[in-house]
Amino acid sequence: MSLFNPLSSQYRRLMEVLESQPAMPVSQASRLMRVPEAKVSANLLKMQRKGMFTQHTPVYSQALKMVVLDETYMPFAYICQEGDALLRDTRQAMALLQPANGQNAIQQRRSKARSQAFGSFVHDLLDVSNEPWNSGFSNRARSLLRDLIDPSGIVQEQDNQARSAIGVLTSLENYLESFFSALFAHPNLVNQEMLPTLQATHRDLNSYLSSLPAAQSGSRSWNAQADSALRLLRDDDLPRIAALVDTLHTRPDERKQKKQTPPILDELAQEIYRLETLSGQLPGAGITPSLRDIAQKLSQIRSLLVQSPEKVHLSCVRSLRECYLPMTDELLSKYMQSLSLSSPAAEAAVKATESVFSGVLPQALSQILDQLATDSANDMRSQADALVKKMQLDGLLPYDFDGRAQ
To answer: Which of 99, 338, 89, 119 is CA-nearest to residue 222?
Structure first.
């Protein structure tokens, strides 16, 4: 042990910071203690043997590469590590989406836009459902020629999409900074929702970034997946992190009374993601526009419920959860099976399902939206039961929901 850096001085410098910052990277502890990172753990054990620790016993976590004030702050340490990685990746994503303005960069973007236009044209050409050799083919060819000569329209669209994504990521960055500012002020308020929320947000961010290169190259299915991941970040993850911040700022007496997130919000988020994903996987199917329309309505319903969680108990929301969501999943499963068959019965089932998704379901969801927006309380249960029974008689729904529709 150096005479100029005794163990007592290392202890004093380390604990001065740990008392206000209960977890830190081992690199920071190394700088505070003025020893190599490899000696941090050994010196902590020496301090413990000498009885320097009284109220708290700092530990070194090999898995986290962090020094923690004591074992009770390990959940805080895990949250710090995950949140730091998420914040870092969010900032890197924002930097990647910022369009470069140099002349060479602009030329590269225009060249990439031309490649995207040609790739989209070839995709339409090979998609037999589009029937490219009809009269609309000449219009599509002229559009391709125009984009090859002047791709500024595609470049502008990409810039608009990037700005939209940067707006979501900027909000995410601000929420995370607020979250950690509040968390470090109240490290004892860690709860079991924090780490899963940060991890789910990180997965959605990684999903968006992994699909972005293919989406920017003109792939329609990947573009749909990128849009879906960005929608989850905006409509699902941001409200959850904002709720965590609110929890940290809530007074203890109010915090005890705070209710958990209603399950319908998670169920809606999963359904929206499924519909958006399927709409990208079925670009030529007649059901695609309806899937996007239904996903949009479900997203609007979810936003209203986030703003007014007390409305989850309305009868229209119960009908949505007990009937319309499971009915949608059942119809989609049968629709996917019927698409792979060529029998007249299968073709009839496909057309009937497309009719339900283009008419009946959007109308029912619009009614639910109206009721949520106007605080009306019309009971839609009988309407939902009648619809289920009709589709069972038509052979579209082989199962009942919760034993209600026999």
So the answer is: 119
Q: Is the pLDDT of residue 124 over 70?
A: no
Whole-prediction pTM value? Answer: 0.51
Over residues 227-242, the mean pLDDT reads: 87
> Residue 40 above 80 pLDDT?
yes
95-104, 315-324, 343-352: the lowest-pLDDT one: 95-104
Tell me, letter by letter, the H, E, C secondary structure of the chain.
CCCCCCHHHHHHHHHHHHCCCCEEEHHHHHHHHCCCHHHHHHHHHHHHHCCCCCCCCCEEECCCCEEECCHHHHHHHHHHHHHHHHHHHHHHHHHHHCCCCCHHHHHHHHHHHHHHHHHHHHHHHHCHHHCCCCCHHHHHHHHHHHHHHCCHHHHHHHHHHHHHHHHHHHHHHHHHHHHHHHHHHCHHHCCCCHHHHHHHHHHHHHHHHHHHHHHHCCCHHHHHHHHHHHHHHHHHHHHHHHHHHHHHHCCHHHHHHCCCCCHHHHHHHHHHHHHHHHHHHCCCCCCHHHHHHHHHHHHHHHHHHHHCHHHHHCHHHHHHHHHHHHHHHHHHHHHHHHHCCCCHHHHHHHHHHHHHHHHHHHHHHHHHHHHHHHCCCCCCHHHHHHHHHHHHHCCCCCCCCCCCCC
pLDDT tens per residue across span 356-398: 888 888 888 888 888 887 765 455 555 555 666 656 555 555 5
